[in-house]
Structures are given as structure tokens and as C-alpha cells.
Amino acid sequence: MSIGAASEHRSAAGAALPRLDGLQLGRAVAACSVVISHAFGHYNNGTHGIWTMLSGYGVTLFFVISGYIMVLTTGRESFSPRAFLSRRIRRIVPIYYIANMVLAVATLLAPWAFKRTTFDAWHVVQSLLFIPAYDPAGSGYIWPFFRLGWTLNYEMFFYLIFASLFALGVVQRALSVTLVLGGLILLGMIHPFSAAIPNFYTQVATIGFIFGTLTGMIALYRPIRLNGFWSWIAALLSFAMLAVMASMYEQIRRDPATQLWLSIACTLHIVLLVSLVDGRGRAVPKSLLYVGDASYSIYLFHMFAVGAATAVAHRLPSALLYPALALSACSGILAGLVAYRFVEAPLNRYFRYRRPLTAAEISAPAAATEPPVAGTAAR
Length: 379
Known about the structure:
mainly alpha, 2 strands, globular
């Protein structure tokens, strides 16, 4: 059975929800954006310009999808916070712990293979508990032991806020999410924090959740349907915004307004995908739906393959640079697909998730951009 063909999933109340193949495609785009950015960045020991923005775009797209999906799956009325958090924990935590375990074993057995990751027992514990902490290696970044997990720290924080609003209707819940996250962002701008936890949770990176939540609220009352004219306007506007930002991203990447415009562009893309794919019943290639299904595994495991492929690429002639980088990106995606097939999907079945549900409900971010540094805006 194809993933897209049976993409029925259920709300917190158990009611069947429409297929969301458009969001599946969005997740595939987000995951591939992150992998491509990391493939180029890992080879060059850091990304620049459009490649940096590509990873930021992927993460922001995941955050917008997350807010959108959480609203759709909890519905217009109150929901059970216990059931909500249970589903999120069962979906997020097990495979994340496996990824941490793989990295821990690798750093202990081959520490020379990791330039910026060192094993520190307390840091590992903080990573497993989703507690933001500074990198013990002294980089100045707020990184968990499994560095890609910094976006999961944001996800879990968003889930806790969302669950705490269980008694409210969807409009009040969406507005409350906006006030809480928006207030924290404003607080961070007015009074930058140095301690890891308040510094991390007052960054502008969470604005994507706000946009997704508000868009999901609108979709619950009025299905998102853009006609041809407005679809072209949304597409042209969003890509023009991305083009302008990409042309000067190194200069504006730390500006909070950059994340705002990036979130607007990503929201427009979600609106387009939902409208053009789900609204018009257009079929999405099964291969892309499968990538969307596996996007969480791609997020967690792609860097293991990208790192190995980069080590090989450094030994190749410069004429083969771009084919080697393309191969590196493909290897990262393939590693995620394998992890999904043999690790994540069996875990989902064990926890009584059907495969389409896991793809549509979860919006774990693919890691990508740099995490916050003390006193600076999130990337």
C-alpha cells in the first residue's frame, strides 16, 4: 500500500482527518533542503549565503508544519493533554534516544572522527532530557550532545505549551500560543539572557510555530483553497523574498527580521502545497511521499552518512567536487530512508502507529542551522 494512498490520520479525539499529502511533500522538501545544505557545509567546514539559508528554510518549514498539524489533530474544542503528550513522546523520543546512543558509541570508539563533538556524560543526560545547555567543548553554542537535536528542544517546548492550553477552544489556543511564544521572543529582544535555558527559549526561531498554528486555526474553519491567480501571487512573492534574502544572507542572518520573513515565505509555501495538492486532489509521486514519511529519520541520521561521504570527497580530485557533494547529499537521504525502514517504522508499529499517521502527525524538524549563541538571535 502506498504511503500517500492511505494517508488517513486521526485527531486527538479519534476522528478521521483528510489526507494531507501536500504537507508530506513539504516535509520531503524540508528534509532534502537540510541534507543538501549540510552536504555542502560539511565539505567546506561551514555553509555560506544561499546554502546557509537553505538549511534555515528547511527548519522553518518544519516548524510551520508542526504548528499547523498540531492544530488540525487537536480540533476546535478541548483535548486530552495526556493523550496528546503520550503520542508525541512515543513518536519523538525512542528513535532520538537511539540516535544519541549511536553517536555516544561512535565518539567513544573513534573520537578522532568527530571534530566538534565530545562525549560528556552530563551533557548527554541533558540532551536526552531535552534541556538546552552550552556545548562543553566551548564553542559558545547552545547545543545538545546530539547537535541536531536543538530543534527537538524547541519542538518539545512547543508541545508542552500546546498541551497546557488543552481546555481552550482552537481560537483561544492559537492566540495563546501567539502571546506566549511572541512574548518570549520580545523578552529576549529587550533583555538578552546569558543562561542557556532562558537564552534558548527567547529566540526568534519559534516564530514558525506561531505562523503554523494560526494557519492551522484558519484551515479548521475554512479549507485553504487558492485559485490560480492567488497561487501565482503567493509563489512569486515567497520566492522573491527568498531570493532577496539569499543574496545577502551572511549580512542579515542574525537579524530577527530575517527569521520573520523566512517564516512568512515558508507559510506561503505550506498554503500553496495544501491548496494545490490536497485542495485539488493532485497526486504526489510515491517516492516523495516516502521521503516525507522518513523525514524524521533523515533528520536524525543523515549526518552520519554525510560525514563519511565527505571524508571520501576530500580525497577526490577537485574536478569531481560537485558530483561528490551530490553523492554526499544522496547518501544522507539514503541513510535516513534505511533508518526509517528498519528502525523508525518498526518502532512506530510497536507503539501502535500506522505508517501514514506517523508521517502526517509528526513534524520533527530536520536539524540544520546553527543553534543560538548567548546574546544573539537564533539562526
